[in-house]
């Protein structure tokens, strides 16, 4: 089986000027926005991927968001296809007060084609809370920033535009393209959404979304959870993954064959079940209650003084005790709120699981009856 690193070994010696960008290239360019560029740019300079990696090698603290990036960064920096691509306008903002985590970078391809790459959720708790906020609120801070970023890039540079992102980055890519200035929309050729969540009804039903959705190419793994959250109206390609369950969200597990993903006919039953359950829960619990539940949960988490998922999980037992203690300390009204929300979710899970089992048994029964009928004939 092959992934994006194998693709670079196969296709890395052929520049974009000879073979245009494909869906695998887009996944790689989406991942580049996760690279640790914070100390690699001097002001607003423009540097190649090769030069960025050379600077990264000199860094004392080579921290990356995912260990596989330590393989991908040098791979793209050394191959002819990527090393001379120019990196522009990197931005990375984590603002706890605004509950915002936003990062993006623009990659200049041959023929002045701009690939605007939006980063997905990083390991900060603020980033994860913002993802939760999407379940009850539209136009969250990072979405507004994505629109502003795209407008700024388009005003500074000429050429066609491709927008892409993985996870929340995919959501930001669709949002930015949907609500950017009208004159920019004409320059956008394609939008790549790599397992990114959808939107609430108030966005999906807008004229802007309905027009732009025709340019969106969405890819999700066969057991997708993140990429099926909220509402989608675009068609999608189901990609084979070597991981299990929600870990299939890891794009390094996505399988490729040549310049295409290894695709499947449909998502798994588990993905369908999770998707149905979450959508029904969102309809059952009013938005204001969902907002309150998220707020209370993160108040409890914040009591640990952790700022990243890594810090939260490093001392599992101590963290668990602290979380339980602080849950016990919250007022009875908030306890009832959380209890009701969880009770509603578990009830929907139980109902959908039983219905799924019933449907499977019904299908088996029909197959048995059919085989018996054929024997008699």
The biggest beta sheet, please?
A: 9 strands, mixed
Oligomer: single chain
Termini distance? 46 Å
Proportion of residues in extended strands: 15-25%
What's the SSE pattern? Answer: HHEHHEEEHHEHHEHHEEEEEHHHHH
What is the arithmetic mean of pLDDT?
81
Q: Give the overall form.
A: globular
Key features of this structure:
globular; 15 helices; 11 strands; two-stranded antiparallel ribbon; 377 residues; 9-stranded mixed β-sheet; 49% helix; disordered C terminus; alpha/beta
Structure notes:
The chain has 377 residues and is an alpha/beta fold. The chain is 49% helix and 15% strand. It contains 15 helices and 11 strands. The chain has helices at residues 4-11, 23-32, 49-57, 69-78, 125-133, 141-156, 168-179, 182-185, 201-204, 207-212, 269-284, 287-302, 309-314, 316-329, 332-376, and strands at residues 47-48, 86-95, 100-109, 113-118, 161-166, 188-194, 216-221, 236-239, 256-257, 260-261, 263-264. The strands form 2 sheets. The chain has a 9-stranded mixed β-sheet, with helices on both faces. Strands 9-10 form a two-stranded antiparallel ribbon. Helix 11 (269-284) crosses helix 15 (332-376). 32% of the residues are buried. Mean pLDDT is 81; it is low at 366-377.
SSE blueprint:
Blueprint lengths: L3 H8 L11 H10 L14 E2 H9 L11 H10 L7 E10 L4 E10 L3 E6 L6 H9 L7 H16 L4 E6 L1 H12 L2 H4 L2 E7 L6 H4 L2 H6 L3 E6 L14 E4 L16 E2 L2 E2 L1 E2 L4 H16 L2 H16 L6 H6 L1 H14 L2 H45 L1
Parallel strand pairs: 4-5, 5-6, 6-7, 7-8
Antiparallel strand pairs: 1-2, 2-3, 3-4, 8-11, 9-10
Helix pairs in contact: 1-4, 3-4, 6-7, 11-15, 12-15
